[in-house]
Predict the 3D structure of the following.
Amino acid sequence: MTLQQLKYLLGIVEAGSMLKASKNFGITQPTLSAMLKKLEAELDISIFDRSSQSMRLTAMGECVVSQAKIVLTAADNLKELINEKRNRIGGRLRLGVIPTVASSFVPSFIDAFYASHPDVDLSIEEMKTNEIIEGLRSSTIDMAVLATPLNAEHLLEIPLYYERFWAYLSPLQRELYSKSSLRASDLPLDDLWVLSEGHCMTKQIFNFCGENDEGKRIYSAGSIATLVRTVDKIGGCTIIPALEIPTLSDKQQKNIRPIENPIAVREISIVVKDDFVRERLLNDVINSIKSFIPSDMLDEHLKKFAVRL
């Protein structure tokens, strides 16, 4: 059994057909079929149910595919670990970012990271929290930046920074608009525009409001900019994280108010699987983030120490 055979197997599963997989790999279908039969003969099992027209895995096949993913991830990690020991930072980095962080984070991160790591094949995807957890566990992403704590098994959370929430008000909210700061209990839930289900910021908002998860939900893509424009056009209010404030116009910045008693804040962390081995790459990613996050927001431990895995 070889790593290449396992790669071919996963390619068949992902493509859903032998024909598509063979085209993806640039080999003939008979060659790919022969490879699969050889692997099945070595393992003395049937990986696919051939009585089905679709490429459906047998129970044993599902076990093999699950283990193949682990083996191939470990092999990739070994290559990257050796490269890091040789002071070569390259390879692939797949980063997941929650939408409510992405708009302010991604452009600055790409600029900072690529300046010192042009050889890294970087890809960034906006993902909801549950998608990130699944992506990390299945090794379809390598790292993620999102709100924590998650308290999820087999994931390592490294706090990066702490970000305050601010209220964004329509001038039509005359009583609130006249105040220089707001209590969480001041927020009018009936006129509060929030993100759709699945966005962790919505849960955080209602946690500090001390209310059930209610309010007006719009825009499943989770754009804070759209929430702001909705308040501008229709009225009401919404909640925005501090790093979104610089994206507002001078006129819009007059509509923000700090939330106090209690101060509304979220912890943003970088999260990896607990078996992640690319320590130098992780620290390089963190250092890139530290270069554009305001110092007073950074985690105190991260200001002083590197991360040890």
